[in-house]
Automatic annotation (TrEMBL):
Topology of the protein relative to the lipid bilayer: Multi-pass membrane protein
Gene Ontology molecular function: ubiquitin protein ligase activity; zinc ion binding
The organism's taxonomic lineage, starting at the top: Eukaryota, Metazoa, Ecdysozoa, Arthropoda, Hexapoda
Reaction(s) the record says it catalyses: S-ubiquitinyl-[E2 ubiquitin-conjugating enzyme]-L-cysteine + [acceptor protein]-L-lysine = [E2 ubiquitin-conjugating enzyme]-L-cysteine + N(6)-ubiquitinyl-[acceptor protein]-L-lysine
The protein's name in its UniProt record: RING-type E3 ubiquitin transferase
Length: 341
């Protein structure tokens, strides 16, 4: 408990540093994977390339084409003229909540989120590559079709209730996102040739690398990942420095405490030696029996017991006798040094 505050601060800093380090290495791994990715065009030669690969697949590849639904597309609930293949509808509640410190802060929480999708492919001319498990992509770019905020109109009763519950509603935010048909999209993942279904080509999540479906080019994606990596690098440096500073403070305080303990121990030894020398001088003076401790009969009487006032114990024996005076059996309330001349 002596270093509780520093231990808590160091633990929190260590957790944050660990998260930042993990994200830094994740970004580094992703950058290395994307740098080494094979880039292929969606054309007639793609199927032939896959046939010459082991198991008819390429472990990590980048392709680019135009989004096209394999069947009936989805239509926006806010604009029927917009069609797409993946749709995400989100409803969030915005509130002002009272924190444990007593302050009010803006917060939001997702009340409902619905994702709809239809089979789709990346198309280039008469050739296409079907996309599998699009929602599992690490980066999945979709357009915001609608983002509407409806503020609430609380009554006096709502204000009173919010004051006691600690939550006041500000309003509801409804957002619609959609991967629209016809937009160019870069897919990075595992490319497989399904020879059992008329040489259908499929892009799916890879086993040991991140899956991306983005409107960016491969170069733009690399720059984005590199910026993210740089951010986590600086965060690691900042929180690592904080950890070193806290650790240095703890070490400095520990060393200072040990030095104080050594000084106190040395002082105790000096006092003990002084007491021994003083007792020796007293013994050399041939004490009478009434001047010796009534318990050990060796050391001089050094302690007065209150409230009875008896001076009958040496300092060593007084440490073990705490309740009653050995001379009169009266309860001991206080002890003090007595100097007998």
């Amino acid at each position: 408990m002596e270093y509780l505050g520093e231990a808590i601060a160091l633990s929190i800093d260590g957790i944050i540093l660990g998260v930042c380090l993990r994200q830094y290495f994740v970004c580094s791994k992703a950058i290395n994977a994307v740098k080494d990715v094979e880039i292929h065009e969606v054309n007639s030669q793609l199927a032939e390339v896959l046939k010459n690969k082991p198991d008819n697949k390429i472990g990590y590849v980048a392709i680019r084409g135009y989004v096209k639904a394999l069947g009936n597309p989805l239509y926006s609930v806010n604009d029927k003229r917009i069609s797409g293949v993946v749709q995400r509808l989100t409803v969030k509640e915005h509130v002002v909540a009272r924190t444990t410190a007593g302050f009010w802060s803006d917060q939001e929480r997702t009340m409902q989120q619905v994702c709809n999708s239809v089979p789709f492919a990346l198309k280039n001319g008469n050739y296409n590559v079907e996309i599998i498990d699009a929602l599992e992509a690490k980066i999945f770019d979709m357009d915001i079709i609608s983002d509407e905020f409806k503020p609430s109109a609380p009554t006096i009763v709502d204000h009173i209730w919010g004051f006691f519950t600690g939550v006041r509603q500000r309003g509801l935010q409804s957002t619609e996102e959609m991967l629209r048909e016809g937009i160019p999209l870069t897919g990075i993942g595992e490319l497989t040739l399904n020879s059992s279904t008329s040489n259908e080509i499929i892009l799916q999540p890879p086993t040991k690398a991140p899956y991306y479906l983005t409107t960016m080019s491969v170069g733009s994606l690399l720059r984005k990942l590199d910026n993210k990596k740089t951010t986590y690098k600086y965060l690691c440096i900042i929180f690592g420095t904080i950890g070193i500073v806290i650790g240095g403070i703890v070490i400095k305080r520990y060393i200072k405490d040990r030095e104080n303990e050594k000084i106190a121990e040395q002082l105790r030894k000096n006092l003990e030696q002084s007491r021994k020398e003083r007792r020796q001088r007293v013994r050399d003076g041939e004490l009478r029996d009434d001047q010796l401790c009534i318990v050990c009969k060796t050391n001089p009487r050094e302690i007065i017991l209150l409230p009875c006032g008896h001076v009958c114990l040496c300092e060593d024996c007084s440490d073990s006798i705490k309740l009653f005076c050995p001379a009169c059996r009266q309860k001991i309330d206080q002890k003090a040094a007595a100097y007998i001349t």
